[in-house]
Known about the structure:
Chain B: This is ABC transporter ATP-binding protein. By secondary structure, chain A is mainly alpha-helical. Chain A has helices at 2-17, 25-32, 40-74, 87-106, 115-142, 146-169, 173-184, 193-208, 213-220, 223-228, 233-255, 261-273, 278-300, 311-329. Chain B is of the alpha/beta class. Chain B has helices at 50-57, 80-83, 102-107, 122-135, 150-163, 180-196, 208-214, 232-237, 240-245, 275-287, 318-334; strands at 6-17, 24-35, 39-43, 65-70, 73-74, 87-90, 168-172, 200-205, 217-222, 226-230, 250-253, 258-261, 270-273, 300-303, 308-310, 313-314. At the A-B interface, helix 9 and helix 10 of A face helix 2 and strand 6 of B.
Amino acid sequence: MTLLGVSILLFFFLNLLLGSVKIPADAIYNILTGSEDESPIWTNIIMKSRLPQSFTAAMAGAGLGVSGLLMQTVFRNPLAGPSVLGISSGASLGVAFVVLLSGSIGGVTLSKLGVIGEVTITLSAIFGALLIMALIAFVAGKVRGNVTLLIMGVMIGYVANAIIGVLKFFSAEEDIRAYVIWGLGSFSRVSGGQTNVFIFLMSVLLPISFLLIKTLNLLLLGDSYARNLGLDIKRARMLVIASSGILVAVVTAYCGPVIFLGLAVPHICRGLFHRSNHAVILPASMLAGASLALLCNLIARLPGFEGALPVNSVTALIGAPVVMWVLFNKRRNEV
Amino acid sequence: MKKNNETIKISGLETGYISKKGNTVITRDIDASLESGELTCLLGPNGAGKSTLLKTLTAFIPPIQGDIFIEGKSLKDYSAPELAKVIGVVLTEKLSISNMTVEELISMGRSPYTGFWGKMSEYDKMAVEESINLVNINNLRGRMVQTLSDGERQKVMIAKALAQETPVIFLDEPTAFLDYPSKVEILQLLKRLAIEKDKTVFLSTHDMELALQIADKVWLIDKPHGVTIGTPEDLALNGEMNRYFHSDGVVFDIDNGLFKISQEMHGSVSLTGEGQHLNMVRKALTRRGISTAEKDSSVFVEATPRCLSVNGRDVKSIAELLDEIDSIIDNDNNS
């Protein structure tokens, strides 16, 4: 756990240090401590770009890690993740509606509107994700089996993607481009005041997941044992899905659909800690998620790529081998 | 001797599955009671409704008709958290959980008593400690659940039910998948817990012989007759036992109160002798389908601690004795 904390600090610092413009470490220290002596360009790069981006990456990673863990526990399925239930598809659908239709119907090209455009995209993503989540939570209250619910979620995701496809067909080329870029995922899309909103939202939402620790541990035992121990399964399932869904909705709204972190992080934590108790694995997923997201952001920005590399390519490139390594090294019977 | 109390009263119970298309009734007209300090076994062939009855009693499914009273209060009137303090269950379903220690798992039995965060009080820890000692699994406490054998896991789940401190414990086939000594061990453990802790223990099982030797009461269940209840001995005397389990391969031996495999006899010998040797030879011959009832057979077998012989010829072992008899019978048939 300490190791994870240290790695977050390290990656966070490297995120500030490395980039297309070379800024020495002592200058960064001076800028962070509020000294006015450093060059205003450097100050701007650190305070307006690298610092908010690092915070966004850490918060988004933590959110996705926790969300993935909640999904895997509630569905008792190691392949479950934030994107599986179609919640990120819901966010994409919301964005697609606004970005693609605003051009075709409203005659306004949203991608050219600057901050107002950004806010609109964020709100539409949250709206879309919450809509799908409400649908899934409703279904969760109706059906008994976990697998049924999981398949329902996947199907809802397909429907959302199909609608997006139809929308794309009728859209102007530059709108599609704006949508595709949003879909690549990025920790630097949000700017200025919006970063603060995102960080504020996440620092409220993340601690809420800690309220679910006892419920999550009971869910591990399976429905029958959990019920016998006094747990209202349907309510518990809805609560967990809702918490997980809201986290994904907010992260996706601000950073685009960042894939793989949510799936990979809980596996990495199980591999590291060999524990299932959520009092351990939940904070661990939070820290590991933040750490991994910072690392991915760092790689995406390595000299040579100049920030051109989409975060999603990096998360998959880093995440997939790490999960495979964890699975190869795990002891028998553990998933 | 302490007077046992009636903890569960069942009146006019009809079990089965309720659905919109119409109810599927499995067993009707069950009137019964269960007492504290007693071990009761539910016996019956596959598909007779054992699981459905158990699920109904543990409130996993509602009864179609009738009512179940636990400590004088109808099952319907218990809230889920209240019920969790009255009924503990041990199920057949295999735990999908891993990376959790035995001690952590048993501690989950305290969930109905712990607060929102699941923090264990001193008393909770003591209750877990006591259950571990009662089931005698101190050596397992640090082991991961996925490394346990079937028998060990069953004991751990029993300890979990004990930690739950419920007056009633229901077990669904706790002896399934176990080797014979483990079956005996589990049943003896449950019997001891019923007596020492004054628990009402009710379990379903296919191990008839063991159940008849250890159960205070037996519930026989099958499709045509419903549920019949009594001590094993009463059920043997009034012929219920034979009626329930009558099939070609099995007969109920009223002399020792156990089931035995019925053999078709295709030969006979006159058997004399004494002690264990006489019993063992009789058993071996019965297994071969050779009757020992006749007094005037052409083959004379003597079995005493000093001498084993066939028609006066000494043999060293029961194996040789059987070979000798086989060759005599073969000769008789050929000539």
